[in-house]
Structure formats: structure tokens, C-alpha cells
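C-alpha cells please, single chain.
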Amino acid sequence: MKLIGWNVNSLRSCMTKGFKEFMLEEDPDFILIEETKMQEGQADISLDGYKYIMNSAVRKGYSGTLIYYKKEPLSYHLGLIDGNHNEEGRVLTLEYENYYLVVCYSPNSKEGLLRLDYRMEFEDALKEYLLSLQKPVIFTGDLNVSHQEIDIKNPKQNERNAGFTIEERTKFSSLLESGFIDTFRYLHPDLVKYSWWSYRFKAREKNIGWRLDYFLVSNELKDKILKADIYTEVLGSDHAPILLEIDL
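Here you go.
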């Protein structure tokens, strides 16, 4: 099974920058999208061979998640437990016979860490939700954190910046310790590769980046991981698409 995740930073915009051509050439079983920045019906986002389910934010032009799929799910769910934390359309789950597939766009703690407290609340609710699922989980998204120093170009300069605070990194460690594998780091323990670059200061050209995008899987799926990678050469967003191939 092949899955591609991507923070597209506006799906409508990315559609004009090679999104369809890239996805149709790669032909994954699932395409998991964050930051759609759109509501249902605002544009034609159809993709030959796929259906999709969208979870849009209440606020137009903001946040949002979406999953393109080939195989019909048994069910789907918006938000976390009891639909909480769904005003911003950040979590979408598909259920299949032997696993759950969850896409997430974690809140950014913002400049000055103005939203760090909310981010911590969201992370606790997210962990509770993932652990409540009664099947193995494939979990992906722009999780807005670089977990280790290897995951960011300039760790020392960013210690109190959103996405690399000790609070965010500790929450991520806690999630992994609760029963999840970071598939990319599991297969590539020493590989330096980033998935996001600022649009400023020619950061992508200079590879001054952060790894913010992840595929995590439940521990019981560890031996089924075949490949995990980042398409650093693919443009269309300030994030690169990420790949997981798993024997399911």
C-alpha cells in the first residue's frame, strides 16, 4: 500500500502547480492533504480514479484536511473524540477493516508562542483520540514540530521558536512512547532531510529547512514498513510531499 501526504498550503493553488500530474504519476492508494484552505464546492479538485472526503474549517480560507482514496472506507470521522477540536478542520479519520487512517494538521504555536497553550491542549486530546482507536493506526500530517536536532537546520537558534520548543518536542516524544513509530526516522536514523522551508531568504534553495511532516504507525505495524521518504524535489507548496509504503 502506497500513501502520500502533503501540506499543500492551499489546494486550489497547488492544483495549478502540478499537483494532479504528480499524484497521477505516483498513483498512491491514498493521498492525505493538510491546509486545504477551502470549503466544499469552491473549486473542482477531482482526481481521476479517486473519491475524497474533506474536513473544512469553519473559517474560510484557513486550515482544513482531506483524504483522496480508491477503496471505500467502512466509516469516517471528523475531529477528535466526540468531534471536539473540529472548528478548524484539523483531523480526519477513515476506518478500514484492519486499520484506521488519520490525517492531522497540528496547530502552529505562532510567533511569540501565542498559541502554545492551545497547542498543548490539542496534543493531549489528539493522543487520547489516537489511543482510543481499536485497530492499528496509520497517522500522518504536518505536525508542526521538528522532533530532534537532526530534523532542523539551525537547532540552537530555534530553541524557543514555534515548532522546536521543548514543550512541543516533549509532546511528540510522549506520543511515540505511547505506541507509535516515526517511519522515516525508523528507516533512516541518521539521514538529514527536511520537509518545509520558509519562503523567505531563499531557504529552500539553501536547504535551510525543518522536518515537520510525518507518517507514524502503531508499533504493531513496525515490521510492515517498506519505505518512507520525502519528495524534496517536488514543488507546489512550502512543504514537500512525504511517502509511506507499507505491507497492508
